Amino acid sequence: MEKNPKKKKTVKRLSTEIVASYSGKIATGRFENCSPFFSLKETWSGGMDDAAISIRQKQLSALCAEKFEEVEKKELVAKIRAERKDIRFYSIGNDSYPSVTSIINWDGDFEEKTRHITPDQMKQYAARGTIIHKQVSVFLETGKWKDAKEIPELRIYRVILNKGSLGLTTDGYDFRGFYEKYPFEFIKSEQTVSNKDKRYAGTYDIKGILDGKVTLFDVKTGSSINRANAFQQLSAYSHCKGNEDVQQLVVIPLNSTTKQGFSTPAIEQDTEKYWGAFLENRKFFEERYGA
Description:
about 290 residues, five-stranded mixed beta sheet, 9 strands, Trna Endonuclease, Chain: A, domain 1, two-stranded antiparallel sheet
């Protein structure tokens, strides 16, 4: 028997706690004291050298910074929505992108004042457009023209028109007549698309084939059409994911001022012609709103 047995060595397991945080003040937030704080803590079994700890701290800090940026963007969008009820944003993943029409009309608040159009009147014009656009979409998808009363989701827009001070109606706007005179092959309608590089999104009216060319169509129901704005809008849609095959842009003018209820379509075969103008508006929108 061994007189002095050797004692077994006990190995102590070390643990390492790593803490990282990120905070800041959101100057563009809805509230002046909006100062989000994010913190992450991890506990690792076993020892870690200083270099490994430093690397992991930076990684955790970066994750906290990402969360801060998400809150900052949401606060900014909320502030813009509070200031401009007409500006629309689309939720793309964890982000929000301004709509194509909001970008093009980034100074619309000034234009509305100079044209003496009230927000309530704008709502009535928008309601009429929504009704007609939905009727067109249903017609292209089913082959049947439905009265607005037969489409449940249009009820609120019918109420806006019926109770509106302008007395607007959808009478005299004849898409079926236009479609009969200028037939095209229907592909899709009312599809939401986005451009993650330029950070914008939107919903185009119609995609189809006209004269053998893949075409994006935009239905306009106003008494007058801003051709440049209309083609900027279509050009922006054509530069979104899924529309790489688009070859031409067409504006469909529906109106009640002509006997037939529509006018000759405006066609642009150069999808790049108005792209630069849209990018300029995208820049101005970002400069003014930071989004």
